[in-house]
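Figure 3 (text version): structure tokens given as input.
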């Protein structure tokens, strides 16, 4: 698993206009850890985006990774909704669409409830750009590879999003 303050990277494989390597941060002290590598798995935007209750597209979340927006309910509630729909993990994008530099720091809320799936946090700008690309292409999901090991890739070859500075 990952230690606190480490990053986890994933690459969008499709659609091609957002074929970049994105940086996410894992939830602290709760949820599962990424101990499986997925070479091709769907990143499914939750409908509704905040994933605070029943999903309209829950069938697509089954055995995939859900992309949800921050807000509306606790992170743990979002994780439980995605877990109940059979999701393998959840990536939570900040709801501030212009946020291109600050990761949301979330800790366990002190509740006795738990979730077993991993939760990652994504910059608001990155989440917005992924959702916008899917809407423009009329696609229900992106295909991603997660996690991606970037330690052996020179920075100039990492294909990071042009709107994000590493």
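Below: residues designed for each position.
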């Amino acid at each position: 698993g990952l230690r606190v303050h480490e990053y986890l990277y994933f690459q969008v494989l499709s659609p091609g206009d957002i074929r970049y390597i994105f940086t996410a941060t894992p939830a602290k002290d709760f949820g599962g850890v990424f101990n499986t590598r997925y070479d091709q798995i769907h990143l499914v935007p939750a409908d509704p985006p905040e994933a605070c209750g029943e999903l309209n597209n829950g069938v697509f979340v089954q055995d995939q990774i859900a992309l949800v927006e921050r807000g509306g309910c606790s992170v743990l509630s979002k994780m439980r909704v995605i877990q109940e729909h059979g999701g393998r993990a959840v990536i939570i994008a900040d709801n501030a669409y212009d946020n291109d530099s600050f990761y949301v720091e979330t800790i366990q809320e002190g509740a006795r409830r738990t979730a077993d799936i991993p939760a990652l946090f994504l910059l608001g700008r990155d989440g917005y750009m992924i959702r916008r690309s899917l809407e423009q292409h009329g696609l229900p999901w992106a295909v991603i590879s997660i996690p991606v090991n970037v330690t052996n890739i020179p920075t100039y070859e990492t294909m990071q999003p042009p709107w994000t500075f590493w």
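The mean pLDDT is 86.
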